[in-house]
Amino acid sequence: MFLERRRGRTARHTIDPSSYQCTTLASQLADEWLKMTRHMALSGGGSEYSGAVRSFAKFTDKHLSEAGMDPAEARLDEHAVDLVEVLYAWEGDLRQKYGPKSKQPYRRARALLALIDQRATVTPGIPGRLRQRAKAPASYGKPTPQPLDEFSNAERIALRDAARAAVRATEARLDRGRELLAAGTDPRVGGWRDLPNLVWATQMRMVNSQALQTHLPVKTRWWPPEVVDLLPAPEGERRGPGVRALGKELGRLLFPDEFDLQAFRVLLLLGMTDTTPEELHDLQMGDVEFTDDGLRVVQKKLRASRIRADLHPEVGLESGDEDGVGEFTGGGSWDVPGLMRRLLAATTMIREVFDPDPYLFVAVRQAASGGELLGYVAQFAGPRYRFGFWIASQRDGQGRPLKISEPYEVRRLRKTTKVVRAVALGGTVSDLAGDDHHVEVYRGHYGHGTTAHIMAGRAINRSQEWVFNRLAHKPMLVDEAAEEWLDEPEVAEELGMDIEVAKAMRAGELDMGLTNCRNPYDSPQRTDKKLCHVAPAMCMLCRNAVIFYSQLPRLLLMSDRIERMRTALPPPRWHAIYGQQRAALDEVFAECADRLPAARQQITELGIRLDLPLGQRTEFDR
């Protein structure tokens, strides 16, 4: 037996071989579990291995009995029962039970195979087939989960505002409770029908269902009005709330419950960019230290076996300063140190009255029987205390339910803070990963988010725009009058051409198939002074291109081709390949719109077609 104590709770991990028909097999596997746990000092008492043994032993009893075999004959060092076949059947049963998206089949099979392999290494008599199976991987690999996306910025702000409102409401309720406590006396002297006395008795742990039934009238309507007002409204046709509900509400006047703590949890996760939900839940009082500069928090990352101390400075923001702009003298109310002070203040009476384990998040709940109040370490695991239930219970400033995308997973808050940091820094991946992640971990778990993709797209668009602004210019359109006098020095100079280039162009020697080119050996697409290799497909984006009116039919055919490709390609790919060319063609057509009908007629009458090199035609058509 191993005991695991975590967050104020003690879990006992045991394997009782006598509970199974395959007693010998269960005993052998239990021995290996004990050895594995002790020698490797596994955290949590090796619960994954013990769970696998119990699951396999239970399945073996059922499987062999249904097959007409005696489960008692099953053991690791005998051939009477083919355990390899039982293993395969067990893995298939796990897969069917948990589903293809669950990690449990993989984890349990891997754990059990490790125990068998450990036994086979030092113990003779293990069948060779079972040895080989123990060294092989699990039948079903570890599923790759769909990465969680972060909350949008609007959702982040909505959650933040709702959490702030919830914290204010909790503090107001606790303030009222402390005022009543100060006015109350011992109800055995002052009477049980005064609300301040009931609050006093609650603080002294004198309130439970039996005490309230004894000292209050049987009918709720006979209770004092201020006590009745404390009860929640009845739901539907159910009987109205009674002494149990009253005991709970009396406790909530003095002590926060897990639902109240959820708001502090949300705000701290949004403010502590380098903290995971697990690290936050595991914080104890000794891990938190207030300094002159802010708050020092010692965090333990169990999976990485790493301990680090983070300093959260005093930001100094007032509650109304939503965007962190402005000046404020002293500690802030909503920065991490301010939130931590408020959380400790809200839970101080819990620590004084119930003396729970020294964790940061402690709450009070009502016992299932008896109705007495109990202090404990918050787990945020009950149906009414989960993150999703808290979101569904919140309202915005207009009283409407919050519009938050699913899934309601608290880990998305962690990713949201990482994205906010990425937007603020705008640096390299190593900068965004911070000091609590490797670069590859950041890429795999945080770099896939919607905001990261949008930022990457914007960066690419800015880069493309910069390149096109430097390299791509609208081709020069030369009308018929200028074309006739192109070989005149004044006209050629006005158009930025040498006289020899102008003469060659007028003679058709520099026609690239779609436009003319000032210098095919000075292409902006290459630097080796060789003949341009991207004409005519990229001529519309080239500073060397010159268009004569006689080439308008070919430009119209190119335009038609681009529009056909719009229906054949996904919009992002079409925009990447043809977007700039489409824009350049539109600018040219705008300058000679009156010529386009005649150019269309020439295409029909003369049977003009667009000639593209075979390589480019294949590239753009696929």
Largest sheet: 3 strands, antiparallel
Task: State mean pLDDT (0 to 100 scale).
Answer: 81
Helix content: 40-55%
**Overall morphology:** flat
Low-confidence stretches: 317-331, 429-433, 618-622
Please tell me the total number of domains: 4
Helix segment tally: 26
Radius of gyration: 37 Å
Describe the structure in your own words.
Mean pLDDT is 81; it is low at 317-331, 429-433 and 618-622. The chain starts with a strand and ends with a helix. A hairpin with a 2-residue loop joins β1 and β2 (9-13). It has 4 domains: 2-135, no CATH class; 146-231 and 241-320 and 330-425, no CATH class; 426-470; 472-621, no CATH class. The strands form 4 sheets. The chain has a 3-stranded antiparallel sheet with strand order 3-4-5. A 3-stranded mixed sheet has the order 8-10-9. It has helices at residues 23-40, 47-66, 83-98, 104-122, 128-135, 153-183, 187-190, 195-203, 209-215, 225-228, 243-252, 258-271, 277-281, 336-354, 387-393, 411-425, 429-433, 439-445, 450-471, 480-484, 489-494, 499-506, 552-568, 571-591, 596-606, 614-621, and strands spanning 2-6, 9-13, 288-290, 294-301, 306-313, 362-366, 373-377, 476-478, 516-517, 545-548. By secondary structure, it is mainly alpha-helical. Helix content is 51%, strand content 8%. The radius of gyration is 37 Å and the shape is flat.
